[in-house]
């Protein structure tokens, strides 16, 4: 299974939904709370070119946010990524 990184924030319902989806898939991931330390949100924006959370990476691939993750799952494209 590739490394999965999910950038999250406190009180973010989309972050919770993304983590639940990954949990249902049995995926293990590293969660980085951008509210936990100064500079993490800026680092995320520079890395992803987006301002919103969650931002999800599977291996070297930037998936995007929860809607992007869910869309991959609905198209049956998420499971192959998790198994790669």
* Second CATH tier, the architecture: 3-Layer(aba) Sandwich
Number of structural domains: 1
Structural class: alpha+beta
Shape, per Cα inertia axes: globular
Strand-and-helix sequence, N→C? EHEHEEHH
Strand content: 15-25%
Q: Can you count the beta strands?
A: 4
Which fold does the CATH topology refer to? Glutaredoxin
Q: Helix content range of the residues, please?
A: 40-55%
Give the helix tally.
4
Biggest sheet strand order reads 2-1-3-4
CATH class: Alpha Beta
Describe the structure.
With 84 residues, this protein is of the alpha+beta class. The chain is built from four helices and four strands; from the N terminus they run E-H-E-H-E-E-H-H. Strands 2-1-3-4 form a four-stranded mixed β-sheet, sandwiched between helices. A hairpin with a 2-residue loop joins strand 3 and strand 4. Helix 1 packs parallel to helix 3. It is globular.
List keywords for this structure.
alpha+beta, four-stranded mixed beta sheet, 84 residues, Glutaredoxin, 4 helices, single chain
Short description:
This protein has 84 residues and is an alpha+beta fold.
Topology (elements, then pairings):
Layout: E1 4-8, H1 13-24, E2 30-33, H2 40-48, E3 55-58, E4 61-64, H3 66-74, H4 78-83
Helix pairs in contact: 1-3
